[in-house]
Every structure is written in C-alpha cells, then in structure tokens.
Amino acid sequence: MHWLRAALLLPVAVSATLNLKQYKPSLNQPKYSNAKADYQQNVVNKAQGEPKFLTDKTKKFVVNGTKIPEVDFDVGESYAGLLNIDKNNDTAGKLYFWFFPSESQAADKEIMIWLTGGPGCSSTGELLSENGPMLWQPGMFKPIRNKWSWHRITNVVWVDQPVGTGFSQGTPTARDEFDVARQFLSFWRNFVDTFAMQGYKVYVTGSSYSGMYCPYIASAMVDSNDKDYFNIAGMQIFDGTYSVDSIGEEIPAVPFVDRWEHVFAFNDTFRQTLKDAHEKCGYADYMRKWLVYPPAGQQPATIPGLDEDGNVKTECDTWTMILEAATEITPCFSVYSITNLCPLKYDPLGFSDGSMYRPKGAGPVYFNREDVKKAINAPLDREWVFCTETPVFFNETDNSIDEGPGSQPVLPNVIDKTRNVILAHGTKDFVLIDDGTLLTIQNLTWGGQMGFQKKPTAPLYVPYHTNTDPETLAGAGVMGTVHSERGLTYLAVSTSGHFLAQDTPAVAFRSVEVLVGRREGFESTNTSFTIDPNTTAPVGDAGNGTVLMFPQSMEPERGQLSGAQPARSRGSEVSAAGGQAMFAMALATIVAVYMEF
C-alpha cells in the first residue's frame, strides 16, 4: 500500500510545530479500582431496562459508558477487551474488540463486524474517527456524540485484526488471506459463545485493505455451512483494494487527473509527460479495452507497466509522478481526499491523513493514554498505533495479493450466496481510485454473467433529514451514482474521499440501512432515514447520477449523459447536478423549530 510512501513525501516544512502547552488529562479523571463493578450495578438499575448482553461471561468486558476520558456523555452499553483466537491456546494470539449493542429495537438477532484495512490499521481508530457512537475526528476540539453512528441501526463490533494490529496481541503467522480468515473465524466462534449470539445474522464490513479481508472471511463463513456461528447475510466494503496495486493506482491514475483537472493544477508539459507514459506503458489500451459495459472478457493475468519482478517500472509509475507533483504545488496534498488543503489538522489519533503529524505539546495519542486503556479494557503494555509499520503477515507478504489475484476468486461466492453485497467508492480517493473497483467488478463472474451489463448512471439519493447539529452535519439529495445487478450494488460517491463514513456519513448510514434490510435501494426519494422517519422530500425527478463513468467522464462536454439532459419535473426538483441545492429549503420545510433526532 502507498499510505506510508505518501506520508514520507510531505515536505519538511509541515513538520514545523505549534508551541502549545503540554496537554494533560483532566485532574478529575475517575479512579478505576471499583468503577467497573459500580457501573455493572448501575446499568442493571437504569430506567431504560436491563442491559442486553450483561452476563457472567461478559461482565469482565463491560465498559463504563460514563467514564471514558474526555467524553462528557454516556456512550451507553458496550463491551471491550482481548479475546483468544483459540480458546484452548493462549499462545495463538488475542484480538481486541469493542462491541456496542444497538439502540434500535429492529436490531433483532443480527450483528455487524467492522474491519479496518491497512494492512495493520486499527478498527478501534475508525470507531472514534468514522462510524462509532462517539467521534473525535481531526480538527475537533473534543469527542462528540455521533448521530450517524452505525449502532443506531444494528449491533456493531469493531475488531483489531489480524494479529499485530491495534491492541491485538501475538506473533503474526498469517501467510495469506486464507490464514486470516481461519484465525478470524476461530475468534468469532469464541465471541459468539461469549455473547450468546448463536444464529445471529452476520454482516461483514470494512474499508481499504478490507477489500482483501472481508471477502475471504465472508466466503469462509459461507463455506462453513454453520448457521449457528457463521450465518453470513451480507457484506459491504468502502474504497477497497481487491487486486494488485496497479489496478487501483497506476492504470487509472492519468484519467483520474484529467477528471479532476481543476484540482491538479499541472502545466501542459507535465500533463503531456503523464499522457505519454499512460499510452506507452499500456494503461490507456487497458482502460479502453477492459473498462466497458458489458465486459469484453477475462482481463489478462499480466498487468502492463510491471518489470520481471512484478514491480512498477520507474517510467510507468504515473501514480508517484502525480503525487510528487501535486505535493509540490499543494504541500498538504492528501491521497485520501484530493481537495484537502493546508494546514494539517491536529489528529488525536496521530494519523492526520497519513502524515503522522503531531503538534508540539499535543501529548500522547488518545488510545495510548493509560487512563483510556484502563477505561476500555485495553492492554496497558501495548503501544497503540493507528496503522502499524510492523508487518502483520509472516515474511511481510500477503501471498493472496503478492502471488495471486487478490480477492477476486472469492468475491463471486459471497455475492451469489448472500445476494447482498455493496461495494462503495469515494471519487476523491487517490490512494485507491474508483475506476480500479469498476475494473475488478468487470472481471468477476457471478449470477451466471460477467460484470455489470450496463454502465452505472442511476442517482445515488440520500434522504433529507432534520439534523442541524453543526458538529455532525451531513448532506442530502443526489450524492453520486448507484448501480445494482444480480445481488451486487456499486456506489460512486461524488463528495467523498477514501474515508467514506467520515466524509459522507449520511451516505454510509443509508448504505448500512440498505445492507441490513431496513430500506430498499438507493434511488427512491420517498423513503426517509430510519432514525428520522417523519421528514419529507422535495418532489421531482432525481435525474441521473452525478458521477460519470469512464470513458464518458473523459469526453468533451462530459457534463451531459448520453447527449441528453436529464428529465425535470415542474415542481420542486432534485437534479443530477444539484440535489444539495434544495437542502436549506428542505430543512426550512421540515423543521419549524430546532429539534434533535
């Protein structure tokens, strides 16, 4: 992966730090000697009713939701800690989890797993920065309640895996994704036994390198034929990697720059250099031949632009050429979201878009504080890093992608058996480009056919809502393009980068609602969010999606689809180009007085 290489290319200038006072935790932090026992009794006595999962087996994992450092609200019932991969063998390693039961009464006998990618990046980190009950994102003053938390829809557990990731402990032994899946299923059996979840529907979700993890884990669950422990019901991946890096990086890099020409302010000479490399290295022919609808056939095993050792040739490394040039022009350029600008934001988790920037006096990373570790049952002797530089695969190699075709062999199995798979991608993501996901889809065979038969054009519609909290604002209206065939749905999100749940939380929330069956599809303007059921939507035709697919995205006058304007209604309309323009008007209609949902 390129996340570390991208960070190292940031200029030295950004390392100039702020002269801040040393940050110190509050002097009124709780004493932990009896806190857990007291909280166990308190949650039993709560007026809301009994906790859902508190038993003799689970009480050692209880997290006091009122005593998490710096969090000034009760996050509710949750459980966290280390659990053996093999319950009969302590030396096999332990995975760290943080489990939040759902606030929703509809979440009956189902659970969602979240796995962050990397490889080696912590799911605990993305709980706090993306989709968990509390948020402390870069630039935020303190943690806040996340109104778009996924646990408002279903039960969710965030797991640091494989061994060596986040708070998890042990010596990495996995050589490929089959090993990762075997270890995870063994852990999951122990988790199900601990929380008495036999027969629960399981939804496997993740992002980035979880495009490798999730399909292998979900496919192994399918093949187990064990509904008690592995009742797999669906899978969702955001901005995933499914094959060798070149498919999502070098091959589509130059068309990506052309599409975002107003962001990449390159001179004509450099643009010509990129275009020449794109043609000479075979990338242009590859895109023209294989990114078509319906597919042209099975893509070749030999990827253009590589040398005999499988490395990208220097003269063909257009991705790095673009990164270096973009960073010269915009020193804080982020491969994760290309429209980010300086200054770098303070990140309590120490990641800061891969730059690892820490202002002087910032103190320890949040999850490395001893009081935080005690509060969430994390190992005190483990240094937490959002994305570890220590390999999480034996011999530093994931053989499934370095010597194989990635997750493409197992993806069809999951789609065919669940008929409920969502692959989403933010179009501002440069670390993994959206056309790479489409190339993967067009190389898969499921449901008796290869790839998508039609080019994606439908509008990705996100309902209007009453959330006016300035800390958790989220867009509405047409926010991209969506397409579904034979149990696979693809979302192209026009306003998101790599961290989709962070950049567009309402899109991510809607995707979870669809995945678990609370709502049907993404095109209808007539269905509200489950947490905001009484809102109304503007009336009219949503038109086409706002993300145009290759090669049309590269053609002159690419603002039009199929040479025709989208249909309009005579009433209040939601257009392909500007559903968001109705947002303020819709809120005025929806909300007579400020209300929280």
Descriptive tags:
glycoprotein; disordered N terminus; single chain; alpha/beta; ten-stranded mixed β-sheet; globular; serine-type carboxypeptidase activity; signal; about 600 residues
Describe what this molecule looks like in 3D.
The structure is a single chain. The chain is an alpha/beta fold and 597 residues long. It has a domain at 7-12 and 261-400. It is built from 17 helices and 14 strands. It has helices at 3-8, 35-45, 123-131, 177-195, 210-224, 245-248, 250-259, 268-280, 283-290, 318-329, 370-375, 399-402, 411-418, 434-441, 500-503, 505-515, 583-590, and strands spanning 79-86, 89-100, 110-115, 134-135, 144-145, 155-160, 201-207, 231-238, 421-426, 445-446, 449-450, 458-462, 477-485, 488-493. The chain has a ten-stranded mixed β-sheet. It has a two-stranded antiparallel ribbon with strand order 4-5. A hairpin with a 2-residue loop joins β13 (477-485) and β14 (488-493). α4 (177-195) crosses α5 and α5 packs across α13 (411-418). The model is unreliable at 1-48 and 555-597 (pLDDT under 50).
What can be said about this structure in brief?
InterPro entries: AB_hydrolase_fold, Peptidase_S10. This protein has 597 residues and is of the alpha/beta class. It has a domain at 7-12 and 261-400.
